[in-house]
Amino acid sequence: MTFPWHKKASEKLDKMIEQNHLPHALLITGVDKIGKFDFTQALIKKLLCPNSSCDHCELCKALDNDDPKSELGHSVLIRRSHYPNLIYCRTELNDAGSMSKDIRVDQIRAFCESLGKTAETLQIGVVFYADQMNNNAANSLLKTLEEPRQNTLIILLAHNTDRLPMTILSRCQTIHINPSYDESTAKWVASQINDDTRSDFDPMQLLESAYGVPQRAIDDLKGDYYFKYQSWQNLLLEIALSPTKITDAEIFSDNELDVLKCLQHLINEGIKIKILNHDGANLELNKVVEKASFNHLYKLLDDTNQAISLSQTTVNMKLLLDNILVVWSHITNLKKYPAVTNFQEH
Length: 346
Known about the structure:
alpha/beta
């Protein structure tokens, strides 16, 4: 089964396969929960099943019995599939009995050694997630990528390619899975929730609140995140239309990154409204867009994107969000765009 939001990436791979241009190394990228692993498993079936992913033959059933995402109660270097020429590499328990935060060099060495044997039929090695490799592990993988063996395909999955060395990136063909806001994806979201829930929530709004990541939209419904997101969005719009509302921003406390992403989505939607020159579904956002300038929206989007990227550093996110909100609170009447401070602090 191909998920609706996987269609474009799947079509790109199908074309490679049809033209016999499949590379020796693939890099499957996309945000967390976009379905990179499911996409990879579907590709493996497509490549190995004699009937192109029939789901009924012995090989398909063997692959369905694989469960490499489950955590084991003991330490291993790599995991072998029920299909003999398929191996997986991921973070595992270390010898001390705790889960490693990264994929270690000894794991990658075992991975490469297993793939270094001559195979008459296609052998596949999957690393998930490659951006969790430490530097030594990445360097160890490089030689295998530089000197690929015949009948061997290496598939790397990554949430964030910025954490991968350029030497790795340059030796892989990248397939990116984009977030999706289209009707077919919204229908999939609707199909995953029961009728009672569907009457209370609009699938497209759920999808938008999850930044176009369908599985995240489903997960958000299991807790109170969706309600929090709606309250953040409502207050952000109130702040843009009535700057004194910024005094209520304490509800953002401890959720600064998610609030920045919520603002990022609002600005993106606002820019789309400006470009298309017609109102969107959100009436309050329409009011903001009507009064805000293109130039200021783009500049604030750049600053918001930069603020989000700084979440991986030691920057004070509360101060950074406060500074972004000051600009947002005046977005409808700015004469000159101000410099957002705190980007270089800490």
